[in-house]
Every structure is written in structure tokens, then in C-alpha cells.
Amino acid sequence: MAHPDFDRLLEFCLPFAQQTLKKYDDFHPFAAKVGTDGTLSPLAIYGDDDEPQAAPVEQYEALLRRLTAEDDIAAVALCYDSVVFANGEDDASQDAIAVALEHVDGECITSFLPYRKRFLLGYKYDALVAQPSEKRFWMEDSTGGAI
Asked: Of 44, 66, 104, 119, which sees the most CB atoms within 10 A?
């Protein structure tokens, strides 16, 4: 069963990605966190000019690994543009908004919202699909504790 923090993170990430797609026909990876106090905070990577910048998924993964080493994080999300395949067939691919979700209790899922651009009519979204995933952000040392 998905953690309620995941619902809050999805409710933030999916509309933001959809709005960005609608406005720019593209979106860059971004992240968010829920603190142990329940506060949801968007996360951005800033450039030298103190302005948020487009950053690759790998930079956000590194940021989230650093943040989860702190004790005040309950859950994190990494949102990025992805591709899903219908029935495992490579030729049946479709773009999707992906949200990798991870909780301090060890629960990990990745949700995919498939989409396609319609001629002059914006975007059409299919049903949200979620699947269990491997840990990416909370890492453990050899003694079993989080690092």
C-alpha cells in the first residue's frame, strides 16, 4: 500500500509537469520532498546566477541522496520525462511523466502517467500506472544504517 506522503508528492509533481508541458511542450527533471513535520517542499538546482537551472536526472539523484542522509526527510520524489512500452514491445512506446517516489520506511514506487500530444488540442493523458521500484535515494551502509 502506497504511503500517504506519496499521494501528496504526486499531487504536486504531476500537475506541475502537466502545466509545464502545456506551456513549453517539454519539462525538465525536478524534485520535491516531504519533511518529517509534513511540510512539502519543491526542490531545484541553482546555477551561478542564483536562478533555477535545467539539470539532468543524475544531479537530482545526487541531491536527493544527500538530503535523505539528513534525519528530517520523510519522503522524496523525482519527476522526469520517460517512455513506457505497451506489452513490453519496443515499437509501442509512449512518452510518460515518471515520478520516482521513496519513503524513509523503505517503500519505493515509480508512477508513470503516459501522454501524447494531440494536434492543436494539447495533451491526452492515459491512466496512471505505478510499480514497485528499487531504492535510489536512501542508501544503506554495510551495518544496515542509512548513510
From this structure: 104
What is the residue whose three cell numbers read 488540442? 121
CA distance 83 to 49: 32
Cα distance between residue 5 and residue 118, in whole Å: 32
Cell match 522526469: residue?
A: 80
With a CB cutoff of 8 Å and minimum separation 6, the contacts of 22 are 122, 123
Quote the number of domains for the chain. 1
> Pick from 85, 92, 99: which is nearest to 18 by CA?
99
* Within a domain: 56: yes
What's phi and psi for 145, nearest 5 deg?
Answer: -90, 155
> pLDDT per residue over 83-104, tens digit each?
988 765 566 789 999 999 999 9
The reported pTM is 0.88
63-73: average pLDDT: 90
